[in-house]
Amino acid sequence: MEYHLKNSTLSVRVICAVLFLVFTFLYLFDYQADILAVTQHVLSKGQTHYNRAVGAILITLVLWLIQIGVFAASKLKSYFHALTYLPSLLLLGVITDVSPQVDTECYLGHWLWGFPLLMVGYAGLVWLAKQFETIHAQDHGQSGIRLMWVNLLIMVLLMLMTCCIGCTAKVFHHRMKLEMALLNRHPEIVSKVGDDEQKTDSSLTFLRIWCLSKTHQLGESLFEYPLVGGSDAMLPNGSSVKLMMVPEKWLYKELGVVFTTKLKPIDYLIKLHENRWATPLSHDWLLCAFLLDGDLDHFVEALPKYYNIKKSLPKHYEEALVLYTHLKSQPRIIYHEAVMDADYEDYQDMRSKAPNAQLRYSTLRDSYGKTYWFYYHNILKKQ
Fold first, then answer.
1. Does the N terminus or the C terminus of the chain have fewer Cβ atoms within 10 A?
2. 135-180 pLDDT per residue, tens
3. Predicted confidence band at 367 (pLDDT cuts at 50, 70, 90)?
4. How large is the greatest C-alpha to C-alpha distance in the chain, in angstroms?
5. Residues sharing a CB contact under 8 Å with residue 20, sequence separation 6 or more, in sequence order
6. Sign of the torsion angle spanned by Cα atoms 188, 192, 197, 201
7. What is the model's pLDDT at position 359?
8. Mean pLDDT across the chain, nearest whole number?
9. Measured distance CA(111)–CA(114) in Å, rounded
10. CA separation (Å) from 364 to 151, 196, 344, 372?
11. pLDDT given for residue 382 in this prediction
12. 75: Cα separation from own chain's centroid
């Protein structure tokens, strides 16, 4: 019986260790890698670069060594062996508890005093657990299955604790993933980042614009994503729109030049084109700036300068032209395309038949949520 008990406790220790190592590595390598990258960038003032594989392996090993030390000191090896992972998993949550304002706020904040205080309470918890295990040490009828399930339950609760403590701000995660994509020269992943999310902010809107521009998809795909801020979200301003890792000079090199005087994005793009400093990429930035502001008149005026409107156009430019043609009594350009005209008529039919605003918004989003028409009538008007 004693042999079976020792075998059960060994199995518990091995399974807990495997769970801890797998969870910690995946949590660091996959979920929190970009958050740790920006944290290291901010703390080192841009002097060092975080490697997700190396970082995940090193942090996992350090936390495992901490657990081994806690186990050696506490000797918890039965019902509460999983508690020896609490300091490590709590520390994992603490180091990934990063605020979107990490560049302006204290990184650890309240954890500087909260973590030591919790460790004092943990010492008391370990003492109680040790007393319980001592009392039941003579109970040779204790079940190995019960040992396993108690420890597995504790491990699950500890992992949930880590996830709750660490950074869970989806928009911030999306922003840092796109910044890492820009740093690593992989802007094409924009299509996979938060494509089914409805929440966004001006910084994420800007990063989407930049990534789509680099893949030459700005006029084709911009309005397929949630957007906010209009054209004001098209350039960093250090507050509502900011870069945390990527140098701003990379952007201005692609667009043309940087002016010593900060201008609003729309004014910057217009001046860039008036002085012939604009690069080919910046043409789409200007056209999309007009669309983001709902300025169809200036869009229609500028479009023929950069595109042959008698040939195939990017999807959102065609949608904007169809909308313009139907809105204006005397349009400067009359644009018709059979399939898109039919879609627009269906879109208008849905708008007129919806019994209330809430149902109209939901119905249109399901069918036409990735069109410029939906942005113009339902998003732009609310900003």
1. N
2. 665 554 456 788 889 999 999 999 999 999 999 999 999 999 999 9
3. very high
4. 94
5. 63, 64, 67, 85, 88, 89, 155
6. negative
7. 84
8. 91
9. 4
10. 50, 16, 12, 12
11. 67
12. 41
Per-residue confidence (pLDDT) for residue 230, from 0 to 100: 95
What pTM does this model have? 0.91
CA 337 to chain centre: 37
pLDDT of residue 134: 73
Residues 6+ apart with CB under 8 A from 112: none
Buried b (16+ CB within 10 A) or exposed e, 305-342: ebbeeeeebbbbbbbbbbbbbeeeeeeeeebeeeebee
Beta-carbon count within 10 A of 118 CB = 16
The string of pLDDT tens digits covering residues 250-263 is 999 999 999 888 89
Residue 122 neighbours by CB under 8 Å, 6+ apart: 86, 87
> How far is Cα 206 from Cα 211, in angstroms, rounded to an integer?
9
Give one DSSP letter per residue of 253-294, joined into a string.
HHHS---SS---HHHHHHHHHHTT---HHHHHHHHHHHHHTT
180 neighbors 34 (Cβ within 8 angstroms): yes
Q: Is 94 exposed, middle or buried (0-12, 13-18, 19+ CB in 10 A)?
A: middle
Closest by CA to 383, choosing from 197, 228, 203, 205, is 228
Question: Does residue 383 surpass a pLDDT of 70?
Answer: no
**For the chain, how many residues are written?**
383
> Are 185 and 210 in contact, with CB atoms under 8 Å apart?
no
DSSP 132-174: HHHHTTT-TT--HHHHHHHHHHHHHHHHHHHHHHS---HHHHH
For 112-129, give the DSSP string: HHHHHHHHHHHHHHHHHH
**pLDDT number for residue 133:** 72
Lowest mean pLDDT among 81-85, 193-197, 220-224, 315-319: 193-197
